[in-house]
Amino acid sequence: MEKVILKIEGMSCSACSNRIEKYLNKQEGVTASVNLVMAEALIEYDEEKVSLSDLDRFIEEAGYKSLGVYNEKEEEKKDNSKLYLIIFLILIIILMYVSMSHMLKLPVIPFLHMIKHPINYGVSLLILSIPFLIYGFDIIKSGITKLLHKSPNMDSLVTLGVLSSFIYSFINLILIITGKNEMVESLYFESSTMIIYFIKLGRFIDKKSKEKTKEAIKELVKITPENALLKIGDEEKKVTIDEVKKGDILICKPGMKIAVDGKVIKGETHIDESFITGESKLNKKEKNDKVIAGSINIDGYIEYKAEKIGKDSTISEIVRLVVEATNTKAPIGKLADKVSGYFVPGIIIIALLTFIIYLIIGKTFNDSIISFVTVLVVACPCALGLATPLAIVVSEGKMAKEGILIKTSETLENAHKIDTIIFDKTGTLTYGTPKISEVNNYSNYSEKELIKKVASLENNSTHPIAIAFKNYVKDEKIKLGKIEKFIEIPGIGLQGIVDGKELVVGNSKLLKKLNIKSEYQEKEKELSEFGSIIYVVESKKIIGLIGIRDIIRENAKVTISKLKKLNLKIVMLSGDNEITAKSIGKSLEIDEIVSNCMPQDKEKYIKNLKSKGHIIMMVGDGINDAPSLASSDIALSVDSASDIAANSSDVILLNGDLSKILNLLKTSKKTIKIIKQNLFWAFFYNMCMIPIAIGVLSPLGIKISPMMASLFMTISSLTVVFNSLRLRK
User: Fold this and answer.
1) Both 524 and 485 in a single domain?
2) Which domain holds residue 412?
3) What's the pLDDT score for residue 444?
4) Which CATH number covers residue 301?
5) Residue 663, class by beta-carbon neighbours within 10 Å (0-12 exposed, 13-18 middle, 19+ buried)?
């Protein structure tokens, strides 16, 4: 069986993705999952029975278009959607002013006066409306195509409403030109334009959310360098990654990235693999140790043998996991889309029956067509279509102001259902950067003076641990001391004269080099279990031990405590060793702690919980979290997250405040309540207005025209709008 991801064009709602998925799965040797958000289909097929061209044909037979195999490096076409929205908004304002200025008692344009110049008035509305038919041609084409394929969707009803309103108005305009000026009250061009514009606006917002997910894959591809240093004999040659072959000997110098997965054959160094392991500590690499493409060589020269290249590399595997996890369909039931399968054809049938029955009982053609249009206009699914997305957009705006960026509408629909929250450790529950955690001062200097001396030396270093001192000096506004005879001792530490006195700082190898016996072995053991140690030596005497470790985020403990009170299961997954992970986990009172997790392990853990019926929120950062973020029901990352994690997430905490998770859950619950109210009103409105539009109450003198129907449709939509705006409070 082969796997392929195909791009699909033309899907507008879940009814579309469901139709394609069902049609593909009916074919022999094909198993498919269609993702509406990504506009892709993840297909597993038997290559002996089905070819790629067959898959393209199946998609076209279902009424859609295949854009070919997904390519993560493919350049996106320039998108002018925002510009068009602005242009057509200006046109709508002009059109609405022309058509409604007399009703709103605004100054009327003299030569476009509705009563005095009905022909000018009608023709101007026609001219302003025609561009909207061109603008919404894709909606109209989709609606007609789905009708021809006997699978009407929301586009179909929108198309019928738009065309009926437009054609009816056009016919009345012809009558006005022939002298029947009274028909000027029966022009509804603005109704068709408003419908098209609001549909386009909704799709623009939705598209922008979808693009964020696609960016994750592009960023993953950029992790590995474009070039490598190939060793040929005693010489080195710069080559592109594509030129590297399995078995080649490559060189990596300090500051360079590892080009491909391989094994060290010469030299030793410290490697930053935090992007893949999530562990903040540097990993020492020497002969026969494995190195991963994209990791950074910190301080040594190594030669390594290429073992995994191209699609077999660790990064390529992560790309595959993210793409497949993103395309694994979640059973998200959207009521409006489900109902549209019955609602749309039902309304069409009702409108046609109304037209036919009116003719049968002796009504004029004009009365019959008016009733037909009235039913379609009054039942136009604007309120139904706005019920869910509008509430979500309002909530997303509110959340953004609070520093919570929400990318997908499904997030707010599902957040209140979460029963398990899984936290990554490094960079999520902790800040992810080394900080001074403890200072043991054995000198006559004050603690601040001791740190100043060490920071003065560290300020000249590019080692990651130096960041802790640089940040401390910056935060405390400490003025650094004068440095002379600065020396960097490779793999050990730093040496120099600080303010006239010689000082040496470094790791445990420093004591061996200086032949110093430590008196503080218990303290050393304690510090080394949970982080790194900086030994401070002056005159061959240890004058200080400084602990460097990752620090727990502010509000983390309080947030976890409150989440547990909501009966949520809290789990911590970490790439760190067991001792470090348990130390952090226990201090935060997390019940379940899993250490030594690679990206695949995190993803498997989440999939296992999901298979047992749990609904998961994954909170993480770092590229190593990308597959697990994509596999979870809701993916959340903090502000310090790498671009990959951020773009693989449904939610980003822009200020890194974990307590905002509580706001998200609370807002989700409120949003669902508003959505249910909106849907109730949308259905209740149709239940009341469709019978009136048909003429059931005409014996009582209650009957509406298409103009009134358009007004009631607008009122229905406004009710949904104002109800949704309550979420801003």
Assistant:
1) yes
2) 404-430+553-665
3) 86
4) 2.70.150.10
5) middle
Q: Nearest 5°: phi and psi at 317?
A: -65, -40
User: Which CA distances in Å does 525 have to 111, 160, 513, 709?
Assistant: 91, 76, 20, 79
pLDDT band, very low/low/confident/very high, at 332 (cuts 50, 70, 90): very low
pTM above 0.70, yes or no: no
DSSP structure class, residue 243: G
Query: At a CB cut-off of 8 Å and minimum separation 6, what does 479 contact?
Result: 452
> What is the gyration radius of the CA atoms in the chain, in angstroms?
33
- Please give the backbone phi and psi of residue 549, each rounded to the nearest 5 degrees, phi first: -155, 170
Q: What is the pLDDT of residues 345-403, one digit of tens each?
A: 788 889 899 989 999 999 877 678 778 877 877 776 556 666 776 677 677 767 766 77
- The residues annotated as belonging to the active site are 424
- By DSSP bridging, strand 420-424 and strand 283-285 are unpaired
**What type of residue sits at position 157?**
L
Beta-carbon count within 10 A of 405 CB: 18
Number of Cα atoms under 13 Å in the Cβ half of residue 712? 25
Average pLDDT over residues 127-144: 88
- Rounded Cα distance between 313 and 292, Å, is 8
CB 76 within 8 A of CB 210: no
- 277, 422: one domain: no
Give the whole-angstrom CA distance, residue 711 versus residue 713: 5
Token pair of 309, please? 């290249």
Can you spell out the DSSP letters for 587-633? HTT-SEEE-S--HHHHHHHHHHHHHTT--EEEEE-SGGGHHHHHHSS
